[in-house]
Amino acid sequence: MAHTFRASTRARRGADTRAWLIVASATVVWLIAYNLMQPLANWITFSLIGLDAASRPGHAVAFFLYDVPKLLLLLTGMIFAISTLRTFFSPAWVRQTLGGKREGVGNVIGAGLGVLTPFCSCSAVPLFIGFVKAGVPLGVTFSFLIAAPMVDGVALALLLGLFGWQLAGLYLVSGMTIAIIAGIIIGRMNMERHVEDFVWEIRSGDGAVAEEQYTWTRRFAEAWEQVREIVGKVWPYVVLGIAIGAGIHGFVPEDALAGIMGKEAWWSVPAGVVLGVPLYSNVAGVIPVVDALMAKGAAMGTMLAFMMAVVALSLPEIIILRRVLKPRLIATFVGVVAAGIIAIGYLFNLVI
Amino acid sequence: MLNVKVLGPGCANCKRLEERVRKVVSEQGVEAEVEKVADYAQMMRWNIMQTPGLVVDDVLVASGRIPNEDEIAGWLVK
Predict the structure, then answer these.
(1) Which of B10, B47, B59 is the closest to A130 by Cβ?
(2) Secondary structure element (H or E) that encloses residue A258, with its range
(3) Between A and B, how many CB-CB pairs are < 8 A?
(4) Residues in A lying within 8 Å of B, measured between beta carbons
């Protein structure tokens, strides 16, 4: 018995070493490819196709050829890293951790864990029920639910690739701030009775659950599965967004948009938020366009508010959450988050 | 006869899991009934936080992901 146990442990360690070797080699290939993109795109545009570096079409084509592979590489790397990290945080553990936390600290931890635990909108209801039934305060649950879609890996990877780490960091901090404050406000409003009654009556947790065993091989395999699924789903939007962005870069004159999307147009912030709601889940296509708009005079706060509305206030999620929340609470949730996003938009237009 | 439940409200991932389970069942010739559970109150018996969930003979074996066919076969073929 002891002998076979040792043998299986050894086999597992061997598999893990192999998995690490594969990931390490892939990282090296990734780094080389990432650094070759710019010279390669320039060479194809200016030498192979022979476009003039100073011309508008030349500018647009070089931009497109460089950005598409760069962003897809960044997305792949980022989603893989986040998904690997995510295997360490099971939802059950998150729920247990948040169960004992009070307002304030709980909201901060809730928002932080929301970033690490992305979920598809169809999981919003079971997550909500699971949290509330485990005694996680309503406000803390909302901090989690707001942060998870707002600060997700796809948005961060694209911001990092197009705008640099400063703006990606700013986005992360503002997104978490909105999630924390909105959660505290909703918590203070004592809206427990606006949760659908059936939620409180559910008898949960009497089913048996099999323990899941995690090895590095399995963590990497699951992360790779996530990469294939997410990148497979968003790449057409990225390509389309960059194509539109390249067109704007090459053909729209400088400062053409300052009048309607600039700082002076105060109404553009709420307008951006309203416009963002129906564009849910297409953040991958929206961010490259935003990048191009900003180069032509659109204000950063306005664009930040627009992007946040795209991810945080999605129509399908609102419809799904209606299953567990009464209309008053849904309206409060949407209102508080929208107000937070608009405030962030004005703040950045004012400061930067 | 095995009882297999796919927990999920009907999103794309839940449908893919159900298809995969049915494929394994027919390929391996397992005697099993596969049912879909779309009711949240029922799903929460296993405290799942992320869909889809897979329950084999009343034990939750996976949730929040789509297991591959080998894994599914491992749970169904004893």
Answers:
(1) B47
(2) helix A258-261
(3) 83
(4) 91-92, 94-95, 119-123, 125-127, 129-131, 133, 198, 201-210, 212, 222, 225, 320, 323-324
The partner residues of B56 in beta bridges, in order of sequence, read: B4, B59
Of A162, A164, A170, the closest CA to residue A283 belongs to A162
* pLDDT score recorded for residue A107: 92
The three-state secondary structure class of B31 is coil
Segment A18-55, tens digit of pLDDT: 989 999 999 999 999 888 888 888 888 888 887 777 77
Tell me if A126 and B60 make a contact (CB, 8 A cut-off): no
What local confidence, expressed as pLDDT, does residue A1 receive?
Answer: 44
pTM, rounded to two decimals: 0.83
CB neighbour list of residue A135: distance below 8 Å, 6 or more residues apart:
A99
Domain boundaries, given as residue ranges, for chain A: 1-199+217-352
**For helices A91-99 and A124-133, angle between their N-to-C axes, nearest 10 degrees:** 40
Mean pLDDT of chain A: 85
Per-residue pLDDT band at A5 (split at 50, 70, 90): low
Distance of CA B2 to the CA centre of its chain: 12
B 1-60: CB under 8 A from A? 8-11, 13-14, 40-41, 43-51, 55, 58-60
Could you say which DSSP state residue A263 is in? T
Helices and strands (H and E) in chain B: how many = 3, 4
Nearest CA in chain B to A209: B60
Mark yes or no for CB contact B49/A212 under 8 Å: no
| CATH superfamily for domain B2-76 | Glutaredoxin (3.40.30.10)
Average pLDDT over residues A319-341: 92
CA–CA separation, A84 and A301 (whole Å): 32
ipTM score for this prediction: 0.80
Contact residues, chain B, for A121 at CB < 8 Å: 11
